[in-house]
Amino acid sequence: MTTNVSQKQRKEFIARGDCSVAGEEVVGVHTRVFVSGVQGAQSLSTGVTSLHPHAVLPYHRHPSSEVVTVLEGEVVIQIVGRSYHMQSYDAMHIPAGIAHAVFNESADQTVSLHWAMANAHPVREFGEGDFEIQDRTETDDDCPEHLTRFEQAEFYELAPGALFRDLFAKRFGSRGICGGYGIFEPGSSLPCHLHDYDESISIIQGRAICQVAGREFKLSGNDTACIPRGRPHRFINRSNEPMAMIWVYAGDEPDRELLEQRCCEDTTRSLNWHNE
């Protein structure tokens, strides 16, 4: 059931990384939805799909842009026959309406993929699978899709000790969605800020503190925060180990407005999603 929530009423919400599986449309393929219109998100949905050994997600298409980022293992993604081998944190943008399939060729390893769509209601339409296979290592200007190899993506320091890589954006061909990877050294944080679009942030390594307009959340293990447009927030690594995230904006390119720190840290309530 979809919940209609006005912009004035919308607040952040947290999805646990071990939330219930949304169902098994295909044998050996399990999907968890972290962010969607059900919780009030606008123009954005994210989650994680796991493929068991030798599992295949058959050819399908979506009505909006999708980006698939490898979290664990290695996969083969075919896009109307163009076949790409992807490793950890490689990201593939697939435009709306383009048929694609995902293969876990491992005999003993489960693959984990983070997915994001420029649509609040993630759906897929199965069909079309008889294509001539062409093995490729990179995408080019003749392809509608775009592959960003993690090791080739440029690092930049968004704040002291917080290093980011953009993996998908309008400049790479995506529409209505952008995002990437960020890693925080112990003690590092982002300044308080807000966006003019909704954001999803999944903590894929370590432990994070998420401050949102006076509330504080502890996240780890794929826990995901959805921050509505206009809500002040920041992320902090108070642990002794690195913390990493996959972040997604419901916009074409990354953009943020910096705020005074007090807009984020006047904490009135702490929500712990994992026992310590």
Characterization of the model:
The chain is mostly beta strands. The protein folds into 2 domains: about 20-150, Jelly Rolls (Sandwich); about 150-270, Jelly Rolls. Helix content is about 0%, strand content about 45%. It contains 1 helix and 25 strands. Strands 1-21-18-23-16-15-14 form a 7-stranded antiparallel β-sheet, with no helix packed on it. A 6-stranded antiparallel β-sheet has the order 2-3-10-5-8-13, with no helix packed on it. It has a 6-stranded mixed β-sheet with strand order 11-4-9-6-7-12, with no helix packed on it. The two termini are about 35 Å apart.
Secondary structure elements and pairings:
Blueprint: E1 13-15, E2 29-35, E3 45-51, E4 56-61, E5 66-72, E6 75-79, E7 82-86, E8 91-94, E9 100-103, E10 111-117, E11 125-126, E12 134-136, E13 146-148, E14 155-159, E15 162-168, E16 178-184, E17 193-194, E18 199-205, E19 207-212, E20 215-220, E21 224-227, E22 233-236, E23 243-249, E24 257-258, H1 262-265, E25 269-272
Parallel strand pairs: 7-12, 20-25
Antiparallel strand pairs: 1-21, 2-3, 3-10, 4-9, 4-11, 5-8, 5-10, 6-7, 6-9, 8-13, 14-15, 15-16, 16-23, 17-24, 18-21, 18-23, 19-20, 19-22
Name the descriptors:
single chain; 276 residues; Jelly Rolls; seven-stranded antiparallel beta sheet; 25 strands; globular; disordered N terminus; disordered C terminus
What is the CATH superfamily label of the largest domain?
Jelly Rolls
Classify the fold: give the CATH topology of the largest domain: Jelly Rolls
- Spatial separation of the terminal alpha carbons: 34 Å
Largest sheet: 7 strands, antiparallel
- The H-and-E topology, N to C, reads as EEEEEEEEEEEEEEEEEEEEEEEEHE
Number of helices: 1
Q: What is the residue-averaged pLDDT?
A: 92
Side-by-side strand order of the widest sheet: 1-21-18-23-16-15-14
Helix content: under 10%
Compute the number of structural domains. 2
Secondary structural class: mainly beta
For the secondary structure, the number of strands is: 25
- The top level CATH class name of the largest domain: Mainly Beta
User: In the CATH hierarchy, what is the architecture of the largest domain at level 2?
Assistant: Sandwich
* Content of β-strand: 35-45%
Radius of gyration computed on alpha carbons: 18 Å
Based on Cα principal axes, name the global outline.
Answer: globular
